Each structure stands twice: as structure tokens, then as C-alpha cells.
Amino acid sequence: MKAIRRFTVRPVLPDPLRPLSDLARNLRWSWHAETRDLFQSVSPEGWAGAGGDPVRLLGSVRPARLAELAGDRRFLRRLTAAADDLDDYLTGDRWYQEQADGLPAAVAYFSPEFGITAALPQYSGGLGILAGDHLKAASDLGVPLIGVGLLYRHGYFRQTLSRDGWQQEHYPVLDPNELPLTQLKEADGTPAQVSLALPGGKALRARIWLAQVGRVPLLLLDSDVEENELGERGVTDRLYGGGSEHRLLQEMLLGIGGVRAVRTYCRLTGHPEPEVFHTNEGHAGFLGLERIAELCADGLDFDSALEAVRGGTVFTTHTPVPAGIDRFDRELVGRHFGPDAELPGIDVQRVLALGMETYPGGEPNLFNMAVMGLRLAQRANGVSLLHGQVSRNMFAGLWPGFDAEEVPITSVTNGVHAPTWVAPEVLRLGVRQIGVQRAEDALSVGRSERWDAVADIPDQEIFELRRTLREQLVLEVRERLRASWRQRGAGDAELGWIDGVLDPDVLTIGFARRVPSYKRLTLMLRDRDRLMELLLHPERPVQIVVAGKAHPADDGGKRLVQELVRFADDPRVRHRIVFLPDYGMAMAQKLYPGCDIWLNNPLRPLEACGTSGMKAALNGCLNLSVLDGWWDEWFQPDFGWAIPTADGSGTDPDRRDDIEAAALYDLLEQRITPRFYERGRAGLPDRWIEMVRQTLSLLGPKVLAGRMVREYVDRLYAPAARAHRALTPDTARDLAEWKARVRAAWPGVSVDHVETTATTATAELGGTVGLRVRVGLGELGPDDVEVQAVSGRVDAEDRITDATVVPLKPAGPPDLEGRLLYEGPLSLDRTGPYGYTVRILPTHPLLSSAAELGLVTLPSEEVVEGAGMVLR
């Protein structure tokens, strides 16, 4: 029989065990081994059955067992120690509190997904895991972050396989009352809510759930409330589900509703109001509009409010291709704003202009969320050095007249939260070397450039550690593979072969990620005969563990999964290559440590960062990857291998795959497997162990989320907080008026004449050339602009590379025609073809970059002809 209604019965804990509830409700347990060990000791069988979720565990423990524990002095001592440790963690000063004054009182961090723990499945892939690691690292560092997201009733999806290997999706219903969440309530005990106005007089309401991530509150908005009509109740049903309007409503709720939820949380708890708002990808971009509306309600005009909002906003893009950006029909967006819908006090045309693709090749009828995010943020970044470069090129059209290098998008390379992803066995090895406190500090704060203590670990210990982790993975894979085959319809009598799948002494390669086409799940299958030879080599075999989900609407991705599964089903190789369905955090935490090689072969440069290899590296796994994302930045032959790429513009895609697959096979055959199986005098793979050591000591400190969040604080949050404070209503109004005046007057700005003291086309290194420039500023004054000399080496087409920029100084009053003379020296600091130009830019103390307005004046063709020559 099926129940007609479902509700959650919570356990009543005896008074001595009450601290268990606090420990279960704070998600710090997900990265704190001692707390997890405590919960496991409550009921080892129950802990396994609850999937390592303390909330579910406590709901299943028998009252008799609870009474027994309430009288167990040893358990109560451990409970007291764990509760005291959590209290100290939540209230003590940490890295952030040790910094100089001036940092933001609070930062609001918005993301469409958060991967905190498998017990709270609100993530689909790398973006969500990164957001979860950002929150955890901020907590460890003491950064006063408030996370904001949506609570999806079906999460992403659970993946199984059909008998013929086709991906099947399942959407289990999540009950918030059974998750590690509490409902935010008003002082009178009623649920706190936010509401959005919809066209036609309707409303979208959402309640606010709170997940406590260490010191960081994470607010999750849930539209499944009785006051909503059926369509509105389903807005937060699935992550990345539904059509355009569904997605638009999700993103309006995340951005606009999210700001309202933050205001509600701060009002109810006394938490400081955020001075900085960080948009993790464009999905939450509407938060800037809500903040503009707040300021307009206080009397500011739109342009002044826009300047005030931009100062305190940070935008992070994770997308290396335009196709990865959310874009909506302009009419759809326009219908959801204005007098009959949301933000009625703001002109709809001003809203639409923020997302308009005004650059060459842009679609004028589409509303681009990333473009809006960049226009609403004074500071923006990509997530690796290479991705920053790709982003500057991709969005250069928003700053016409500037070279891509000057586009104001910087980069902060992603990191991963080591306490979450480092295997307990690896952590224990570190603790033995340097002690508990130093090990925790090294993994969470990550102040050092290298972990020198790794050099003192004996080779034998590293070798035994790696084999232990590999053996654990083998057992995990067999268990998951057996469960998968049962779901595919196989009986136990058919599955005896699974006991021989994988070997703890064989070189193990891991490949696990989402399955869009650019990540090339099946590149390893390009030459199946060569792959079979590698898998079945009599002396140097390899084994491969593969996992990954295709988007439910991506049949191409599903075909790639099926192709891989069918190969792995072949009885000749199924003991050496496996595909594990339902890739998620719980699987990943076993997979990364147990692999010897982490494989990544995307189409360069389409991997924005790619953090899975970082998690593997923290466990002593070596990377074998295309030079893309973070690997392009930090690769060294000491600790991994780079797959050569054939990414020339003239290379046919099939030909490129053939070339790069052949390079992958060559590396495995000629360099990697010999090094793994080669033994030294002590019977150990000495050269392999040395690479593991280098991975841990050199890569370890770099890939930490603690390093990443410290960079965000120093390079983005602190400057944004200073800009936020500087942009009071009056200064924001002054800045908006100045920008309007400069834009209106800019057509009257000109470079009228350029001359140098150079008399020949050659000059000597170390010399200087005098430069005199006569300019017309029209209605602007010298304080409104900066006249610059830009010089450097030139290529065959006279384009300046590696430019040096020098401001020129005014020399004397205006001439009879109102033109001003600027002068300055050019230092000839490099040899070879050398050239210069001059330009005029707007300048103001409150601009974050010279390119902010996208205005620049260069010499006309007539001026260029008389401006001297390229020095060679």
C-alpha cells in the first residue's frame, strides 16, 4: 500500500546527547573527520545505511541505543570535545580576523548550485562543487560570507544505465525536513518568505532554508509553498531544468529574491549587511537590478544607483564559449519587468539595455546574462590564467578600441577544499609528519609556497599509502559495479566476474566529469586496438575507471556514455575498464585518492579550469592532461604529463582527435607505464614515488581553495568594499554625471599632431626619444583625461606587443585654437622593431580601470602619416 501523505518524525534526544543535534545541523561534519567518526560510533550500521548523513542517522537510531549512549561516559567525553571544538571553530579568530582593517563586513556569494556534501544534493558538476568549496574555505578562513542559492526539490538527477548502456534519469523527491536544513522564521515563528511580482498580477513566493556551512550561512530559496499556484510551485523543481521562461524565473528568484532573502536574514539575525556581492556565473545577475531598485527607492536616479551597485559587485565567469551563456528572448525578459511585473520603478528599456549584445556579431534580440553581469560589476574574473585570457578575447567587444589584454577581466585560478577531498589516510600521514594543527592549517589556509615536510616521508610509506588507496578503490568499484548491473537487470548468477574486476597492483587511471562533447569522454576509444593492448599488456597493464553524467537533454552526450559503456561491457576487457553510473561527491571522494593517473583531454581552450585533477593531486595522483585550464598554468614535467594538442585553426576536428589520441597512447606506452612498473634497488618504483612527492609538495599548496579565497579577498573583495564605501549617494551621483558628460563630449576629443625628436629610423638601446603631442579636448578639461604614449615591440603588421604605457604631461596653456600640448620621454628599453602610438582616455579617481567606459581616442590616419616612424 502507498501512503497518502508523508511527514518527518524527528527523534527526541536525551539531554546529554542534545549537542549531537547541533553537530548534525552544521555541515562542518562533512569535512571534519573527528565529528564523522563520532557519528559513526553511534551506530556503524546505521551510519552506512544513512549514506554518512548525520541527520538521517539520528532519525533511525533506536531509543534504547540513545539511552545507552546517554549513560556512556566515554562517548559523552568525545561528544563534549567535539561540541567544544565546533564552538571554538565558530567563534575564534581566524585568518580574516588577523588582517588589517578595511575588509568587507560581509560578502554575499550567489550561485545557482552548491556542492557541499552528498547529503545535500544541490549540484550538477564543477560549478557547484567549486561554490561549495568556496564556502567551506571561507568558513575555515573566517571570511564573513553569506551563500545564496535555490533549493531544488529534485536536485539534479540520479543516473542509471539500461541493459544496452543508455543513460536513464531519475528525479527522487527531496524533503527539506529530512535534509541538514532549518527553516528561517520571523520573530513570531512564521516562516520567512520573499515574493516576486509576476505579469498579470500573480506572485512567486519562496521560503528560505538555512544550511550552516561551518561559519557560513547558506540561504536556499524554495518555491514549493502552498501560497503559490502550481506553475510557480515548480520553479525550483530541478537544477537546469525546464524551458526559457522556467529558467528565467529561476534566475530572477535567485538574483532578486536572493537579495531580499539576504536582507531578511540580516534583519532577523543581526548579521552585518554585505558590502560586496559576488555573482558566481551569470545566473544570479539580476541581483544587481534589485540593488539598483533599492537605491532608487531611497531617492537615487538609475544611473547613480548603477554606479553605486557596480562598485561593490564582483562577477566571476566560468564559461569559455558563448554557447555556455544563458541568453533569453528580449521580449520574454521585458514582459517580466516594469509596471505590471517586477521592479516597477525601473524603466524596462534600461533593464534590457544591460543585457544587450551591442558588439559586432551580437544578437540584438537576445538578453545575455553574462553581458549584464559584466555591466553590473566593476570587477570581473575568469577562473584560470588561460581562461582569463579567453574571457578577455570573448568579451572584448564590450570595450571597443582596446586590445584584448586591456579588457578589465582578471583571473583567480580555482582551488579545491583539501579537508573535503584529501583521503583520511593521506591526512594521517601529514599529521604524523608535522602534527595536527600544522596539518590542518596547511590544508585550510595554505600560506606556504611548498610543503617541504613531504620530502621527509620514506619512499616505503608513500608506496604503501598509494597501494592502500588503490585497493580501497578496487573494492568500491566492485560494489558499485555490481549494484549497477543489478539495476541493468542482471542476476547474481551472471555477476561472478565482478570479483575479478580491477587489480590493486595495476596502474589505475581515472576519468570522471560531466559529458559535454568538448570534454571528449571517448577520445580514449579512438584506436580501440591500441587501447586493448594497453589494458591487457602482459607486463605493464593499465586499468581505467570512468564516470560521468550527460545533461538529460543532450542525446549526443548520452551516445558518448553508451559508446564507452559498450566497450567496457566487452568480456575481453571488462576486468580492466569500468563505467560507474551516478557520479557524485560520494563516489568522487573514493575515486580521486585511489587513482594513480588523472586523465583530462578536453578540446583546448574550452576547459575554464577543471578542478578534478586538483583533488586527485592532493592525494598523490599524477595528472595526464591537455594543457588547458589550471594545468596550462602549473604543469611541470616533475609531477605529470602534458598531452600535446593539435589546435591549429586549419586542423580538421576528426584529424585533431586522431593526433591527440595517438599522443595519449604514446605517452602511456613509452613514458608512463614503464615508470610505474620500473623497480629500483629496494624493489620500489623510485622515479614514480619521486613524482608523487613532487606533486604533493609543489602542487599541493597551489591548488587549495584557501589560497583561492585569500586571493579573492585581497584582489577583489577588499577593493570592491573600498569602492562601495567611496560611492556614497552623492559621490555616485557625481560619478554618473561625470560619465554622462564625458560620453557626450567624447566626439570632440582628438589627437591633432604628434612629433618626436628622433631624426632617423634607428636608435640605441637605453636611449630616449622626446614626444610632443597636441590634442583637442573639446568641452572636457585636462583633469578629465589622460594622454598616454604606448610603446613596445611591433610585429610584421606594426601591432604593438608587450606594451609599455607612459602618461604624458601638459606643457603650457592652450593655444589660440584651444589645443593643449603634452610632452614626455619614450625610453628605448628593448631591441628590435620598436613602435609607439598615443591615445587619450577618460580618467577619474573612482574608475577601476582605464578601459571602464570603453572610450579611447587614437590618432587619425592624417596624423599618423606625419608622426615619425617605427624605430628599427
Oligomerization: single chain
User: Which architecture name of the largest domain does CATH use?
Assistant: 3-Layer(aba) Sandwich
Largest sheet: 10 strands, mixed
Number of helices: 29
How would you sum up the global shape?
A: globular
Rg, rounded, reads 30 Å
Distance between the termini: 89 Å
Q: Averaging pLDDT over every residue, what do you get?
A: 93
**Can you tell me the CATH superfamily of the largest domain?**
Glycogen Phosphorylase B
CATH T-level topology of the largest domain: Rossmann fold
Overall tally of structural domains: 4
Instruction: Please count the beta strands (DSSP E, at least 2 residues each).
Output: 29
Protein name: glycogen phosphorylase
Family: Belongs to the glycogen phosphorylase family.
Function: Phosphorylase is an important allosteric enzyme in carbohydrate metabolism. Enzymes from different sources differ in their regulatory mechanisms and in their natural substrates. However, all known phosphorylases share catalytic and structural properties.
Keywords: Allosteric enzyme, Carbohydrate metabolism, Glycosyltransferase, Pyridoxal phosphate, Transferase
